[in-house]
Amino acid sequence: MRIVIIGAGFAGMYAALSAARLRDIKGVSPEQLEIALVAPEPTLVIRPRLYEPKPETLTAPLLDVLKAIDVVYVQGSAETIDITSRIVQVATANNKRQPLSYDRLVVATGSRLFRPNIPGLAEHGFSVDNLDDAIALDKHLHGLANRPASSGRDTIVVAGGGFTGIEAATEIPTRLRAILGKDVKPRVIIVERNSAIAPDMGEGPRPIIEEALRKLGVETRLGAGVASLDASGITLSDGERIETETVIWAAGIRAAPLTTQIPAERDNFGRLLVDRDLRVPSVPGVFATGDAARAASDDVGNYALMSCQHATRMGAFAGNNAAAELLRMATRPYHQKAYVTCLDLGEAGALFTRGWDRKVEMVGDVAKKTKKEINTVWIYPPKPERAAALASADPEHVTEV
To answer: What is the pLDDT of residue 385?
Structure first.
């Protein structure tokens, strides 16, 4: 028997850990139940931190962890999924193809930044969506030091006033001063189509965010979108022209394209609709998790968000349940009632809220300390020690925060 997990993000990593944990509890050998994880690289990209400087350092190795728990690593990219024959075709090095059969499949392919067909966006836009993009932005920012001082050089436009856009925008002043000199006063502008910054945060936290932006001198353009980009600036939908040599696109994400190969219902973000056990109901043998799945997190109408906070716990449930079906054990319905947000606000500190109503619990330096702990400890893989690694993936005890 074989479980194939596609993706080495937070959901894929914990799916592997959790499936291996249940196999170990049942006393089944790796030869009897193989667990294979497919990904281009055996690393976890710490995606929530890619707005920070030195993004090339924001990865964590997974190979030793996978070896410790007897999970087979298959290096390559899943290209096609044949649900009838239950085979995943993997593109490996040198353009070779490797068919990988499965008894249970866990789709943990994550998400990608949504890039609309805006003139100039592909040629002139940057992002912090993935490791390569974040490295390209960092290289570009350092390259600004070799350009003559101008308003365009020292102006950064962030398109999107959600979590990612705010964290990128509030970090930029510190990053630019480190590159261009402490006397440089960078101009940072957030462009947001909605009438308010942080549209998903609600009325409670918003004044704190707005005050942080004022403190940092970050400007906003609300109720306007991006009409076009070119090498020297950006034009907004209301006709305003902003001279800038750096535009960071942070306006929404969608499930990775591989999910479209699963013939099942999806939501507006491309996520596969799953049941409480994270199965894709219309496709036998297939589970979806993390950003690839739209899953109810409780019984009162809340659904998991596209975040590592939810992906980690969803992954643990998906891996557990895929193994449980093969081992003839009871599955566990996914649930995640606790929900927090911890928003980095650069030199203005951070903001920590709890609950779906986003009640503010911490602000400033206290929240910043919590954010640092989340970013540097909580979201990293367990140590490559078998017992501890397996224990970390009990679905009921994987942190809800």
So the answer is: 93
